[in-house]
Amino acid sequence: MARESKSHSFLKGLLPEQLASLASIATRKEFRPGESILRQRETADRFYLIEDGRVSLDYELPRQRRVQIQEIGPGEALGWSWLAKPYKWQFTANAIDRVTVSAFWVADLQRLFARDPELGYAMMERAAQALLERLQATRHKLRVYVRRASGDENTQQVC
């Protein structure tokens, strides 16, 4: 795991030995602007901590259209679909500019969490918070689309 990852905000509060365990299974990866990091409907088998750069999270619609749900960047985590069946990515993620991540194979994370349940619990607490933020971003985007579709700028929250 990159030195920066040890101070990654997602990992804040973990014990030094937990950070060392995560570092032992992490690899550094870079993505060029426009490069796909993950694609909606493909197998979810990785998890990323974003060190540098910005990522666009998009929901793919019919006829090759996309809706940007959220833009995420340094200090954020990417790739939650491995937590629940059917283990397929729910969004597409593309690098907006050069992106550097610490990447984890899910199988390695699962083995690590089995050996260290406290670390697994701490990571799942962080995942729950991040998923809640992602849900709020998605709800906001849905509200905007409903407002536009209805032509009513006074449309109340729908979710």
Characterize the structure shown.
It is built from 4 helices and 8 strands. The protein has 159 residues and is of the alpha+beta class. The protein has one domain: Jelly Rolls (Sandwich), CATH 2.60.120. The longest helix is centred in the last third of the chain and has 34 residues, at 117-150. The chain is globular, with a radius of gyration of 17 Å.
Looking at this protein, list some descriptive labels.
4-stranded antiparallel β-sheet, 159 residues, 27% strand, alpha+beta
Helix content: 25-40%
What is CATH's topology name? Jelly Rolls
- CATH architecture annotation name: Sandwich
| Terminal CA distance | 38 Å
Sequence of strands across the biggest β-sheet: 1-8-3-6
